[in-house]
Amino acid sequence: MAVRVRVNISVGDKSLEAVALINSGFETEEPQILIPMKALRKLGLKLTGAVEDIYDTAGGPTRVWIYPEKARISIIESKGKVVSEAIADIVISAIEDEVLIGDKLAGALKIMVEDFTEGIWRIKGGRRRRSEKPQRWR
Fold first, then answer.
1. Is the pTM of this model over 0.90?
2. Domain limits of the chain?
3. Which end of the chain has fewer CB atoms surrounding its CB within 10 Å, N or C?
4. Is residue 64 a contact partner of residue 91, using CB atoms and an 8 Å limit?
5. Could you give the CA distance from residue 121 to residue 114 in angstroms, rounded to a whole number?
6. Cα(37)–Cα(95) distance, rounded to whole angstroms?
């Protein structure tokens, strides 16, 4: 099993609620959240305003588009209560089908994984929580 959390991604007056996979292998220099291309329009963004780059992935190099420090990321509970927030770059992927939280964003959000096998996590100093079910953007 993996650890997935419910997030709200806000850009200006637009927002998107999604389930995001915590991916410690998504190593970044700044807090970043990766979203699939299909989620891009829901945030009112277009590729023309983003910086193009190449990221190395387990499947090999891939092209991505980045909006630096563009989004407020909130970890939310099932009733909509915000339990942690951070500002992050938005990284857009044409091949990924899940929202991914990179290592630096996981740290900025104070996410502590207790057990990947059982999908148990917490916000630092908070109560234990269970992983959300995957959300695929196909």
1. yes
2. 4-130
3. C
4. yes
5. 5
6. 8
Instruction: Read off the pLDDT of residues 12-49 as tens digits, 9 standing for 90 and up.
Output: 999 999 999 999 889 999 999 999 999 988 898 989 88
Measured in residues, the chain has a length of 138
The b-or-e profile of 77-90 (16+ CB within 10 A means b, else e) is: eeeeeebbbbebbb
Longest dimension (CA), the chain: 41
Q: What angle do CA 52, 54, 57 make, to 5 degrees?
A: 140
The listed CATH number (1.10.490.10, 3.40.50.1980, 2.40.70.10, 2.40.50.140) that belongs to domain 4-130: 2.40.70.10
Sign of CA dihedral 10, 11, 15, 16: negative
Say what the alpha-carbon torsion angle 50, 87, 62, 131 is, to the nearest 10 degrees. -140
What span, in angstroms and rounded, lies between the C-alpha atoms of 122 and 128? 5
What span, in angstroms and rounded, lies between the C-alpha atoms of 119 and 83? 18
Cα–Cα distance, 124 to 88 (Å, whole number): 19
